[in-house]
Amino acid sequence: MRRLSSILVAVAFTAGALPAAAAVKRPVAPEDLFKMALVSSATISHDGKRVAFVVSRPDLAQNAYLTAIWVAETDGSRVSQLTRGEHDGEPAWSADDRTLVFTGARKGVPQLYAIELGGGEARQLTHQADGASTAVFSHDGKRIAFSSTSSDEAPRAKVDWKALGFAKPPAKHAKSDIRTLPWPRYQLNGAGYL
User: Fold this and answer.
1) Are 137 and 144 in contact, with CB atoms under 8 Å apart?
2) Which of 109, 177, 98 is nearest to 147 (CA)?
3) Is the pTM for the entire model greater than 0.70?
4) Segment among 112-121, 125-134, 145-154 with least mean pLDDT
5) 49: which strand partners?
6) In sequence order, what are the residues at sequence separation of 6 or more whose Cβ sits closer than 8 angstroms to the Cβ of residue 178?
7) Per-residue pLDDT reduced to its tens digit, 70-101
8) Is 12 helix (H, G, I), strand (E, B) or coil?
9) Which strands form 99-104's sheet, in the order they lie side by side?
């Protein structure tokens, strides 16, 4: 009897869904892409009760994807937008699950921000000239590691200018683009040595 009632319920749902699906069937149009939101970077809190994730939406006027951090209860009871920035991403939970640190590009280059889940505004944590990203909390929650690029100043040219007859080096030759690397392994990525 239970199996028969399950089959009848399934048939009823299928019968109700078929005419509606047939009525809306059409080819996908390019403008449909602007109606889609993409979800990424999901990370579950340490207690397993919440998940933070990034929602990306295309913005035709800015010709960009706008991203914000959202938080959902894992039991499905609540989903809410946490940040209102246009370029927020990479959420990371604090050890006590009361704070989220994220990357936000609000005033130029991306920096790290922290926001309390209990409410309030996000506060900027880093002020790196070339930006900061990929925050990871220490196990005790007292420190945060992050990635950042930096550019080193060009070294002074290693030339004996006096032997060449100069009292001081000419301004355009005082610095050199030659690097002496003290380690055997390096990588050049177009922005500098890593």
Assistant:
1) yes
2) 109
3) no
4) 145-154
5) none
6) 155, 157, 158
7) 999 999 999 999 999 889 999 999 999 999 99
8) helix
9) 88-93, 99-104, 111-116, 123-124
